[in-house]
Structures are given as structure tokens and as C-alpha cells.
């Protein structure tokens, strides 16, 4: 059965309580949470769903605890997610295996589609294949609304909302016309992200394991996401990718550094890529607009926590969004920045430190050697990353 063709939603003057831009895990979970409180929510995504997304598709136990707290854990079974029981960090001839509990691997298009379906079931109106742009406040501005332009197949319409949530990922395209209001800082050392889900080379993925092959110019993760399909995700320096002129060949060089000789050609598969990965929005909320997920800030995928941060930010922001619809006050922006710093940005520091270590071959070798003599050290880091989230019960919507 083909999906109905999307069309621009009608504007009836009042429009929506909340417009959520971007239907990744952050946007879909937030839209559902807010709709459950009885508000009218429009969720828009530029891509036609279901869609693939650059990602390794591994979800840690912390994210699962958040999904479970909001009644969404069932999506993992529905999409047939495969369990991850250990992570193997491989650098040259060294290998460190760290046991994990409660991790999962899946294809991103399935996970994101399932979350969107749950949002729709909660009353969210979903519009895919529609590019949204937050419009600058115009003078004289109406302090009770923000405006969003929606574009689909050459048609365009402006809608008003009492609150707008930006969850459009790393590139924050929806903020192109409001970049002065939401400045961002991109790390000059940031690597680029690439991924593909493919049957090619899937025999090199070990069931139940996430294999991370580390070098000083990039790392590649291999995980089996369903029978004979593998997620290959990589963060690599631009220099390495430019030298090979193809992400597949650059990833092959990294795999070969650990003695993994593929008998298939990764340059022939359909890679998707990102811009610089490590970045941070200097303004997390302003005048009826909240930023969540990657659009608020992201640090490379080494610890595989991006979806955890995205889902946590959605659940944490939802009560503030509901309050903003009733009555905006600048203190809500301060509250959101403080909460983001406390619950997510602090955790991103751990990932930042580890990504800095990986850039040095000697430091990586030293860390793996120490960890193999003192296995409790990586286990402590793993249990810190996987610790169930506590903040949820403090913020009922
Ligand atoms: C190489 C790599 C590997 C990774 N591996 C993992 C991993 O294993 N585990 C993990 O937890 N995280 C991983 N991540 C991170 C994870 O993918 C992200 O952190 C997560 O997807 C963020 O979710 P989000 O909802 O904020 O944004 P996204 O998932 O990026 O969703 C944003 C959505 O917004 C839409 N959009 C963009 N612009 C517009 C617009 N103007 N109008 C409307 N819609 C728009 C996009 O189409 C997209 O659907 C990885 C990242 C990379 C780069």
C-alpha cells in the first residue's frame, strides 16, 4: 500500500499550539509527550518517511530506561531490534571487550518511523516531505506567537504557533533565517559522520557485539542490526576522506588497520554523510522557541549516546513547552538552558574527553593497555553511560 501523498496543512488563522520541526527521536518523542497533555501539535519533517539517517543505530540502556518511563519501550520489540551484549574496542592488534547490558541495535528508519507512529497515535498531526523554516520576529511582533514557513512541492504557507520546537538535527536548516537569534559554535577539530545499512560485508559483524575500530584519523563501528544487514557508521577526519575521495575507501583503511580485510567493496555502497559533528548552540531557547536533540548541541558518536541525549532532551523539555504555550516568560529559556547543561551537556563532557584521547594513537594504546589490566575502569565508564535516567519523575507534564 502506498502512503498518501502529503499536502500542506491548512491555515485557519489560529494554527497550532506547538509546531515541532524535525521528526527524529527528539522531535517525535517531544511531540507525543506534548500532545498527551491535550495541546495541538504539528510535527514536520523535510524528508519523506520512512527515511534513513546517518547513525550506527545502537541504543544504550539509559535511553531504554527513558523510553520505558514514557511508555515507549515496546517499539524495540516491534521493530525487531537486535541485542548488544558487549562492545569491542579494537586498535591495531589490541582489543578490549566491555560487557554491556540492555543495549540494542536497529535500522534507524524503522526506529524513527515507529516513534512517529506513536506520536500520531497520541494525536500529533504529522507532515512529512515538508521543509520548515522559523521566521524572524517582525516588528511590530506579536509576542503570543512565532511563525514558521512550510514548503512542499513549490507550495508555501506561513503558520503561527504559541511555541516552536527545533529538533531538526545537526545542521539546523530551519534556523537559516534566524541564525543571529540562535548562534552556534562548531569545533574546528570536528570529524565528519558517515553511515550505511547494508548486507555487504555483514559477515564481519559479530551478533551481539558492537565492534569499534579506532585510529587517530577516525573510527568505524560495525553492528548487526537484523539478519544479514549491518550498520556501518564512521566518524572520520576530512583529511582522510579527502585523501580517499570516498567514505567507503576511508572506512576500509580504518578496518584494515585492525587486520579486518574485507572481501567486498565498501566504496560501492550508498553512504550518507554529515557536516562537522561537534557543535553547540549558544542559545538553547528564546522567545517561544526551544532547541532539543542534536540541534542544541552534539559531540561525536564515539560513546553512541546521541539518541539518548535526543530522547532525554525531548522528555525534559516537554513540560517547559507546555508552560510556554500557556504563557511565555524569559525564565523558561533560563530553565531550559540550566536543565540542558545539567542533564545532557555535562554527560557530553565524558564523550568529549574520550574523543580527544582517540585522536592520539599513543593515548588510545595506553588507555586500552591500562583497561585490559584494570577491567573495572572501562566497566565503570560503561555503567556511567548506561545508568538509568533519574530526572524524569521530577518533571511530570
Ligand atoms: C556516524 C554517526 C553514528 C551515530 N551512531 C549513533 C549510535 O549508534 N547511537 C546513538 O544513540 N546515536 C548515534 N548517533 C547520533 C544520532 O544519530 C543523533 O544524535 C540523533 O539522531 C539525534 O536525534 P535528533 O532527533 O536530534 O535529530 P535527527 O535524528 O537528525 O532528526 C532530525 C530530523 O529533522 C529533519 N529536518 C532537518 N531540517 C529540517 C527542516 N528544515 N524542516 C523539517 N525537517 C527538517 C531531518 O530530515 C531529520 O529527520 C550517530 C551519529 C553519527 C553522525
The major pleated sheet works out as:
8 strands, mixed
The small-molecule ligands in this entry are:
flavin-adenine dinucleotide
- How many extended strands? 19
Helicity level: 25-40%
Looking at the structure, the CATH topology is FAD/NAD(P)-binding domain
InterPro entries: FAD-bd, FAD/NAD-bd_sf, Geranylgeranyl_reductase
GO molecular function: FAD binding
Domain FAD-binding: 17-334
Organism: Planctomicrobium piriforme
Question: How does the SSE layout of this entry go?
Answer:
Layout: E1 16-21, H1 25-35, E2 41-45, E3 58-59, H2 61-69, H3 74-78, E4 82-91, E5 94-105, H4 108-121, E6 125-128, E7 131-134, E8 146-152, E9 155-166, E10 184-186, E11 192-198, E12 209-215, E13 218-226, E14 229-236, H5 238-244, H6 247-257, E15 272-276, E16 279-281, E17 285-286, E18 289-291, E19 297-298, H7 306-326, H8 330-358, H9 361-373, H10 376-386
Parallel strand pairs: 1-2, 1-9, 2-6, 4-12, 9-18
Antiparallel strand pairs: 3-5, 4-5, 7-8, 8-9, 10-16, 11-14, 11-15, 12-13, 13-14, 16-19, 17-18
The structure holds flavin-adenine dinucleotide (FAD).
How would you portray this structure in words?
This protein is an alpha+beta fold. 33% of the residues lie in helices and 28% in strands. It contains 10 helices and 19 strands. The chain has helices spanning 25-35, 61-69, 74-78, 108-121, 238-244, 247-257, 306-326, 330-358, 361-373, 376-386; strands at residues 16-21, 41-45, 58-59, 82-91, 94-105, 125-128, 131-134, 146-152, 155-166, 184-186, 192-198, 209-215, 218-226, 229-236, 272-276, 279-281, 285-286, 289-291, 297-298. The strands form 3 sheets. Strands 1, 2, 6, 7, 8, 9, 17 and 18 form an 8-stranded mixed sheet that branches. It has an 8-stranded mixed sheet with strand order 3-5-4-12-13-14-11-15. The longest helix is centred in the last third of the chain and has 29 residues, at 330-358. It starts with 15 loop residues before the first strand and ends in an 11-residue tail after the last helix. Flavin-adenine dinucleotide is lined by residues 21-27, 44-47, 53-59, 131-132, 167-169, 173-174, 193-195, 233-235, 274, 277, 293-294, 298, 301, 304-308, 310. GO terms for molecular function: FAD binding. Residues 17-334 form the FAD-binding domain.
